[in-house]
Write a structure and sequence with these properties.
The protein is mostly helical. The protein has helices at 7-15, 17-30, 36-53, 62-81, 102-110, 112-116, 122-133, 138-145, 149-178. The longest helix is centred in the last third of the chain and has 30 residues, at 149-178. It starts with 6 loop residues before the first helix and ends with a helix.
Length: 179
Amino acid sequence: MTDKLSIEQQNLVVSHLPLAQKIARLSQKKYTFLNFDELESAAYLGLSEAALKYNPDLGASFETFASCRIFGAIKDYMRELSWGSRNNPVKTESFEFQEDSVYNEIEDRSDVFDKIIEPLSSINKKILQLYYVEEVKMKDIADGMGVHESRISQILSASRNNLFQHWEQTKSELWAEVA
């Protein structure tokens, strides 16, 4: 990362280090073949990137935004370890790599994923699942549903906004269940 963090951004990072550590611990339960320090480093990178790119005018809290960026940074790190394509990861000799979302680990443990997406319609839930968890391209989702790609983009955007609002209302309850 070549950009330097402002004092305010540095304070955001320092105050949210426990969040990055918590997400790294959750990830280690899924990726047991990795050292915790490696996952923690990826989580810290995601947290730093979140501090750089956070825009409070968009309505999401920093914690919500940072959580997504941290999970994404860990997933990006996992992709770097695999020399296969994004949709068809190749198993390496040192370990088997299966590109599943860390969110699946949370879902398996406590149904937190289901509670987070609870207020959405079934079609919105399916589109979120396809796009974010299964990593199906928007174009492919649109083709499968017989709509334009722009409609899928609108649904994803509206779903994200609804989820941010729901998350703000229920985050302390949901984090308590994961801990």
